[in-house]
Amino acid sequence: MSPTLDLRASLGGEAAPGALESPMVEIERLSLWYGAKPALRDITMAIPKHRITAYIGPSGCGKSTLLRCLNRMNDLIDGVRMTGTIRIGGTDIHDPAVDVTELRKRVGMVFQKSNPFPKSIFENVAYGPRILGVRQRADLEAIVERSLRAAALWDEVEDRLGDPALSLSGGQQQRLCIARALAVEPDVLLMDEPCSALDPIATAKIEELMLGLKASYTIVIVTHNMQQAARVSDYTGFLLLGELVEFGVTRQVFTTPRDRRTEDYITGRFG
Amino acid sequence: MTAARRFWRSGEPFVWLTGGALALALVMVAGLVGIILVNGLGFFWPRDVVRLTLAGGRTVTGQVMERERVPGAAGQYRIKVKVGNRDLYGADFVWVNEADIQRRELPPELAVIERTEWGVLIGTITGLRDGDVLVARGPAAWTEAEQRLPEAIRLRRAIRRIEQVDIGAINHAQEKLRLELRRLELRGVTAGERVEALRGETEALRARYEMEAARIAELRARQTASLVVAADGGKETVWPLAQVVDVSFPNAMGPGAKSLHYAARVWEFVSDDPRESNTEGGVFPAIFGTVMMVMIMSVLVTPLGVLAAFYLREYAGQGPFVSTVRIAVNNLAGVPSIVFGVFGVGFFIYVVGGTIDRLFFAEALPTPTFGTGGILWASLTLALLTIPVVIVATEEGLAAIPGGMREASLALGATRLETTLRVVLPAVTPSILTGLILAMARAAGEVAPLMLTGVVKLAPSLPVDGAWPFIHLERKFMHLGFHIYDVGFQSPNVDAARPMVFATTLLLLTIVIVMNLTAVTLRNRLRRRYATAAV
Asked: Which of A163, A133, A158, A132 is nearest to A144 (CA)?
């Protein structure tokens, strides 16, 4: 385990949150524009290793954009311009020497809408390893089992790995997507509103899963659901109009927010 | 609110309107298919042969084909009788007013004799001659002829095989030698060891040809038997057994025998070569040509169309230019097919084919090899014609794949190429097959461009045979669609040929349906395998 969190340090205001923990992702003065429209303004934060960090904020505040910066998925969108630096594990991800596909193998992603490939359950999980060049059937089987177990799906699907992934229920599909992301053994797992399309029971399963996964992965989650952020996350960042209004230990952000706007949002006065 | 108004507001009339439109469409399609089915399938049924005695004592013997009201005379009907015996009467059909008929009989001894020439012969077999000697007469004549017929058919086939296969091979070899000599001549070599060797080989071939010709003559000499047949009006004809394809006695046949005969004739139709300028016999070369052309076209059009669609949808930046290209591609499907045919002639045949000839087949000039219509050029022209269909279907399939699927793959560290090949392509395959189905259906039914690019009324040989290199893409070919046009409108004997038109149409429809069903089955299997959330 990493050193225990010093709450007072976070509450002190001067020190960056999680300063006492080793950071996995460091974002420095990040700004981003879609064409001429600014989407993120001057964001600086450090995301600690083996913790769950949540981004909250009203729709269109830029939290998904910020998340997608971390595995450079925004590269795929035309007309995106960016300044500032992002370091993951100490490496600048925009360094020309960094291969974007290598980066994405280290930074896995789970999307809002579960998006399994139209293949079998097995092939979905084996997709990443196959891309990495794993050919031996036995190796693939081991990876698939390990990933499905990690995603708490193994017991439900072990006897029907050949079935189409789309025959699974919504919650199972989302856990399959998590298993698929885990199969390439990333360091960081990005989750973009992973439970927004799920019922409460499936949501509870995923949340439980996340708590189990944080021992081995650094998780960043975007959520609309503030109870979810409060339940699962260790740190919370509140974004508004592309600005990081507040970032701190979750309990502090929810109980004693330093910014008036955070308080208004959390208490439901807008958003 | 009145009841009528309430009815109108309920939306019910619109339901009726839509249902009515569908019903109308279905009725028209069913009617068309029904007409084709009845006429096409009825053609092969062995109809009874009636002997009609008319007022005045004249007899007409034949098969009743049609019955219609006499124009201008109320309540009177006339029938069209197929009397055959074109060589004796000059026409295959006569119209008979029903009012004139005094007696109708169905004598069991009336025979329908299918011949290799002159259509059918209808009459009574009265004798069998061997050379000039009458071997049998009366009922015994057929008993004797029945025993000799299989041997006569075997002989005829043997002669045809020698003519087509053995002598064909010799001709082919001779032509190759001639071209070889010509090639040497073009290089300025007119004498020497090589030339002598080639001339020697040519001589050897000529000797082999003489041998084969002698074999044919020997077989022909054995074809001595002939049937004596009595027809209406006291006419008698002596017909060589060697030219008899089949003899049947429809009046004496029960339903079982008729069904067997029916099946045999259907089989002949789909498996045999055409006879008598396509109005008799089978359509096998046309079936072969149609299927082969569609297959070559599919092989050409699928990769091209799919690649183009992938570029348009996956790589090209979406903007006014790409939209224009997309509209242009869609409109290409509306260009009259004959225009594609003209393009095929002008570009593929004259430019591409002409260049190939100058570069690789100079020794055969001025006879063109690729610089004339052929199955390759016809297939290419049709591939061009159907490419919009494949592009549009593939593009729509690509658009229907959720963007999240591509993102998921990219987020796992796959490159765009890996994403395209491993995720997008499998998911879009059903749509590609849909496009291919539409393209095949269109290509199989297309005639106009083919008439310019390589279809012929009668092709001397199939595009695939035993001579190296086995597949001859430069050859002209036969096609069912063109066959329909040719038999129906260019035939010397339209009345006799008309049932063939229906039968050929039915066959073409069947082939299109079979090809489509194959593709649909494949597509559904793929769909199940790659079932997407959207489906």
From this structure: A158
The ipTM (two decimal places) reads 0.86
**Omega before B469 cis (within 30°)?**
yes
Of residues A67, A220, A209, the one with CA closest to residue A147: A209
- According to DSSP, the β-strands at B120-130 and B225-230 are antiparallel
Please, are residues B82 and B62 in contact by the beta-carbon 8 Å criterion?
yes
CA-closest candidate to residue B514, choices B474, B463, B473, B480: B480
Residue B127 pairs in a beta bridge with B137, B228
Give the bridge partners for B130, in sequence order: B133, B225
Q: Which of B405, B407, B414 sits opposite A73 (nearest CB)?
A: B407
Residue A6 burial (C-beta neighbours within 10 Å; 0-12, 13-18, 19+): middle
Other beta carbons less than 10 A from residue B319's beta carbon:
8
Exposed / middle / buried, residue A201 (Cβ in 10 Å: 0-12, 13-18, 19+): exposed
Q: How far is the C-alpha of A62 from the C-alpha of A34, rounded, in Å?
A: 11
Cβ neighbours of residue B304 closer than 8 Å, sequence gap 6 or more:
B383, B387, B390
Contact A117 B410 (CB under 8 A): no
pLDDT of residue A76: 80
Sequence letter at residue B234: G
Which tens digit of pLDDT belongs to each residue from B215-251? 889 888 888 888 888 888 778 888 888 888 888 898 8
In chain B, residues 115-134 whose CB comes closer than 8 Å to chain A: none
**Is the distance from CB of A99 to CB of A42 less than 8 angstroms?**
no
DSSP of B244-261? EEEEE-GGG--HHHHHHH
Q: Which of B412, B415, B533 sits opposite A127 (nearest CB)?
A: B412
Angle between helices B403-411 and A170-182 (to 10 degrees): 30
Q: Are A184 and B411 in contact (CB < 8 Å)?
A: no
Specify the pTM. Answer: 0.81
* Cα angle value A119/A121/A125 (rounded, 5°): 95
CA distance B311 to B343: 25
Give the integer Cα–Cα distance in Å for B193 and B201. 12
**Contact indicator for B434, B329 with CB cutoff of 8 Å:** no
How far is C-alpha B535 from the chain's CA centre? 38
Cα B332 to chain centroid distance, Å, stands at 27
B503: CB partners within 8 A, 6+ apart? B39, B40, B41, B43, B44, B269
Closest CA to B244 of B149, B331, B174: B149
Side-chain-side CA neighbours of B19 within 13 Å: the count stands at: 6
Which residues of chain A lie closer than 8 angstroms to B316, CB-CB? none
Q: Are A114 and B408 in contact (CB under 8 A)?
A: no
How far B410 CA sits from the closest chain A CA (Å)?
A: 8
C-alpha A230/C-alpha A253 separation (Å) is 9
CB atoms within 10 A of CB B233: 12
- How far is residue B315 from each of residues A72, A128, B311, B367, B407, measured CA to CA in Å? 19, 23, 5, 46, 15
Tens digits of residue pLDDT in B428-480 = 988 998 899 889 888 888 899 999 998 888 887 788 877 777 888 888 889 99
